[in-house]
Structures are given as C-alpha cells and as structure tokens.
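Let's do one together. I've listed all components of the complex below, 562 residues spread over two lines.
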Amino acid sequence: MTRLSQLLLPTEREPPADAEALSHKLMVRAGLIRQVGSGLWTWLPAGWRVHRKVEQIVREELDAIDAQELLMPLLMPAEPWRRTGRYEIDELFKLKDRKGADMVLAMTHEECVTVHVAQLVRSYRDLPFSLYHFQTKERDEPRPRAGVLRTREFIMKDAYTFDRDRAGLEQHYERYAGAYDRIFDRCGLECYSVQSDVGMMGGFGAHEYMAPCGAGENDVALAPGYAANVEVASAEAQPVELPAPLPAPERVHTPGATTIDDVARLLRTPVGGLLKSVPVVADGRGLVLVLVRGDHRVNEIKLANALGAPFRFALEDEIRDRIGPPGFIGPVGANVHVLLDDAVGDGGYVVGANEPDHHLRGVQPGRDFTFERGDVRSVEVGDTVGGHPITIEPAIEVGNIFKLGTRFSEPLGATYLDESGTEQFVWMGCYGIGPARIVAASVEQLADEKGIAWPKALAPWDIEVVSLGKAGSEELAVAERLYEELCAAGYEVLLDDRDGGPGAKFADAELVGCPLRLTVGRRSLQAGGAEAQVRRGLRDVEGGVPLDGVVEAVAGLWPAIP
RNA sequence: CGGGGCGUGGCGCAGCCUGGUAGCGCGCACCGUUCGGGUCGGUGAGGUCCCCGGUUCGAAUCCGGGCGCCCCGACCA
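Okay, and this is what the predicted structure of the assembly comes out as:
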C-alpha cells in the first residue's frame, strides 16, 4: 500500500523535545521510527522499507563472496557463555526459563555459531566456509542515545568465517573487506575503513568502518590516504621551538607550579617544551614513568599496547614513595623505568626535579636519563601524515571486521583433524554491520534544512507522485495514472492522494525525501505534464515530464539522480 | 556508575515559586472557505496533570519515596 491516504506515515512538524541528533529528529519527524522505551524503537512502515533496502544490499554482497545465510536464535542457554568467560558481561541480558535454567539473550553470536561448528566440523575437508545472519541483538547498554544510533535492541548482520589456519583467515578477511567496501559504496555512504584497536577480545587485527557525521560517537583522524580511529592513530607532531639543552640540567625554583601551564608561564617556555610525567603501574612491569610533550595527551589505548599489558595510573602514595612529590616529578635521577613518547625530539626540556617546588630545565633525554621509546600520545589537529595535516572528525561505526583467531574455538572445542590426523583449532573471523546505523548515518550525511534526502539505493520509495487536486479532480486522476504506469515499470512509488493543501504536501515530500518527486497540478496539466524535482539539492527538472511516456522520461532522468 | 534536566490531551509547551473551576499552539472531527509552499473562520472531541504516600477543608502546585525519559561524562566484546 503506497497511497499516502492509507499509509501509516506519521510526519511531525516538530522534532521530539528530547532529540539532539539530526538523524534522531528527522527519522521521527519523517515517520520512520517511534520510541517504545529507552533504547527501544519500532520501525514504522517507511523506516522498515529503508532498513530492508540496506539488508538486501548487504545480503547480495555477502552472497557474492559465498557466505551462507542462516538464522540463529536470540534466546540461548547460558552455558557456552560461561565457557568463553563472557557470562559476566554487564551488557548481557540474563534470565531463567520456567525450569530455572540460566539463559541469555544473545548480544552477538560467536558462542552460538561456534557451538554448531564444534559439533558439525570434523575434518579439514569441511573447511573453509562462512556463515551470516540478520538477527536481533540485545545489549543492556548503560546509555542508549541518539535515536537509533545506540540502542538496547537492534538488528545486526553478523558473519563468521571458519578456516583451518591463519592464512585462511587472512584470505577470508580480505574478501570481507572487499565486500564491505562494495556495501557502503552501494549504500551511498561516505565511509572509511580504519585500523582499530583489538580491545579486550584480543585477536589478530581489526578494522572499523566509520561514517563521518555530526552525531558520531567516535573520532577519526583523516588525511589524504590515511584514516584511523584516534584511539590508535599515529601522526607526525607539529614541531616545537626549543632551546638547546644546557650543559647540565639547571635546577629552578617553581613554587606552587604543579601544572604544565603554571610551569610554562613561570619559565616562559612553550608548553611543548615541557615533558609531562605520567607514572603508571603496568601488569607484570611495575611502575613505569611515561613522558609525553607538555602539549600532548597520553592515549590510554596506545599506551596499553606499547606497554604490552593493561595498566593503571599510579597512586599518590606510590608516586611519593618511589619518585618524588606529585606535581614535581621527573625522569632525572629517578629510579624508575622511563617510556618516552616518539614525539619528544631533541632539545632542552623542562621536567620536574623530584623535590618540592623545583623543576629542571635544559634536560636532554638520553644524556640525563635513559628511556625506552614508544608512540603513546593522542594525535591532535595539526599533526601531519605524509606531510598532510590531519583533521579529526566525529564518525559513527557502521561495521567492523575482526580476526578472532582461536579465541572462541578453544573454549568451545571447535576443532578439526588435519591431513595427518592431528586435532587443530578452527581459525575464526567475525564481521558485523548495523543496518540501522547505516540508515541513520545516511540521514545525517545527506539531509538538508528541508529534511531527509535519501540516496536512490536506500530510499523507502523511488518516486513520490504528488497530486495537488482533491478527490475526484483531474489532477488526482492523472496522478493515479502516472502512479500505475511507474509501478508497472518497476519503480517503487508513493502517491500523495490526500486532500490537503499544496504546502503541506510539499513539506512532507521533502521531509520524507524520496529521490524524485513528480507534481501534478493545474499548472503542470496546462503545460501538458508533471513537474519533476530531484530531492538532492531540490533541483527542478527543466520541462518536467510528459503525461504520455512518463516511464521513458523518468528512465531518462533516473541514472543522473543520486 | 558520576553530573545535570524533564515527566501536564497525539506532538510542542504554559501553569507549580505564592495550593482554590486544567490552559495555549499544532494536530484530530464536523461545517463553510481556500486551492501551487504547512489557507482562513466557526463548532467540537480528547487529560488517571508519571506512580504511591503525606500535609491540608482543598494538591498539577508543598513534603517524602519510587518509576520513567533525555543530555554530558565513564563504559561500549
């Protein structure tokens, strides 16, 4: 049913009072989604059409790389989650069935799929293969937000690959990376594949697919030929004008100057000429003094990777006992291992003197203290990659791919026998896409002040035919005819056959955002046709389209419409 | 989990401070009007004022407790 007079398409003039994000406001206003509870949303008919468009693109591209679609349940026994150590995750919804057995609502399906593979795969002859499904995920998020961008229940396409070894996994991974590029491209989304942190899942490598948009939750560092999550990004730091090192560190009185800014002001030194001393305690390594330039910030993820272990910041007492008075600590003369950030260059730096109210200046790394190097700082706007300054943009993660290795096959016993009859663990990869996020990101990226401007690939309907006449009018009769002909030609068409003023109809059409609008009114009928307007950019098509031969005329316009 | 805010017809809000008949705009229904950018006029329907308890002759309003929702941060397998 695509007559607006009968369609449940509740458009609103005003956005919900509590909406912040553009996509949240517009998707509600355009009648695509409606909230049920915190992080819980109903997809109304128009919204669901868009969601299914995305699903179908994903499905076609995955089928094209020989992935096999199946469907696993949402509700499952807790047992496999205990075995993988993930039962304790706070976001996991836990419940009991009537017999008192522990159950969970799957937040992802590694456990489920691996249990099957453990049972079904016997031999290297059974490998490799890959499976995927579109299934609801349940996650008890601490803070759902921004409409459909971060919810407690959502549909995810999750895929899993199964190989006999690492080389097989690498191949599968590359095939998926290719499919993902094609998917986001077909969706008309601006999207970057960025190196990402493997996080607590461990694993052997991961990429995130990031769609830049204002409502994004992640920050991505971008330069020509470069894109990375700021969590792991590396770049060349802007240089700092530094004095040469003094023949020996000079002790200077800096009463009460416990912050970088205090010291820089007092000593008239650029902030980048100070070294910030950050004492941390790393698992298995003990106390480590991390040094970054005064104008830089320690990146905790990069630091953990550089240390090769999780860490925590040192406590005041530990600092006092092992190094010096907090606020005045430094590497010189301290009996502590030093990790020096890569961005620290040559020159005479200012560091804490390890005694109250004093700093040292003219300090030269290497001469005055020994150190280990590491890239542990967060990149900043103005840093460069390959000579190009980077920008940092917010982005929404619309997909990810992840080399799991044997993270799940080991605890769940997914093994096969190789040619020699030796039992081996299956090597796995996992690959996610959130269709709802693609929808929201598309709205964010392409909307204008009038509303949503769908790309052809995602639009709920290809064409909206607007009749400006009331019931029984010639305008409506003509609009009906165009509608029938275009439908018969294979277009998805929405007909605005409501009794209403032109203003309201145009406003709704622009809000809902179908790529092409045909308008049938008295004016256009006198000109012998229907007016045509491309939604993106609101470009009027010169001369409109004729009443006889609309299908041909639209077919002519269609390829040029974004 | 820390911080802030909000719950009053479908939506957006006022009223609360200073207790006394529950209001406005939009939307909706009907009549007329208009008919190429959210027409105009009239009539009308629609509300447990989030819930429970307390104070009071009387509570949307004051007090206590609870629930829900949003935003910022933390978190995000």
